[in-house]
Design brief:
By secondary structure, this protein is of the alpha/beta class. The protein has six helices and five strands.
């Protein structure tokens, strides 16, 4: 009985640590791997100003991933309050966010998605976002689709 309890504890602990591994640790694991994954999809879970810390982190991750695997595919999916900052009307208010997003798309070949469902439920039309932002019907479904193609999901949360 004690062995079963111990085994159960170890399994739960391993599951927990893999699910909640830090994004830094997940990127380091990919970079140290001998095999390039198909791609990486970053899921951002943050407040409206969350892109202020998430995008610079993603930029560093892209640099590290592309240094090791120049052809790795990378996507970002925003499907919460943080997507409010990506609206075109907030270009001046969130200048760094818009600059980083545009750079990720134009210079780093990263696809950046926002969730149309979350936006519409918040009173924001898809046309409110700049042209370089890809509109996904549902953010979680977009992430799942990437995973089905072999992308590794990395959650960024604070």
């Amino acid at each position: 009985m004690k062995r079963l309890m111990y085994f159960s504890f170890v399994c739960l602990w391993l599951l927990n640590t893999s699910v909640y591994a830090s994004s830094d640790a997940q990127v380091a694991k990919i970079v140290s791997s001998k095999t390039m994954p198909v791609g990486v999809v970053f899921e951002i879970v943050a407040a409206e100003d969350g892109l202020n810390w998430a995008l610079p982190k993603i930029k560093r991750y892209v640099k590290a991933l592309r240094k090791k695997y120049p052809k790795i595919k990378i996507a970002v999916v925003s499907h919460g309050k943080e997507l409010f900052a990506l609206q075109e009307k907030h270009t001046k208010k969130y200048q760094q966010i818009h600059s980083l997003t545009k750079g990720l798309v134009a210079n780093d070949n990263v696809t950046v998605h926002v969730c149309e469902t979350y936006a519409r439920n918040s009173g924001i039309e898809p046309e409110a976002f700049p042209k370089h932002i890809s509109i996904s019907t549902q953010g979680p479904t977009e992430i799942k689709n990437y995973q089905e193609f072999g992308y590794i999901k990395i959650i960024l949360t604070k």
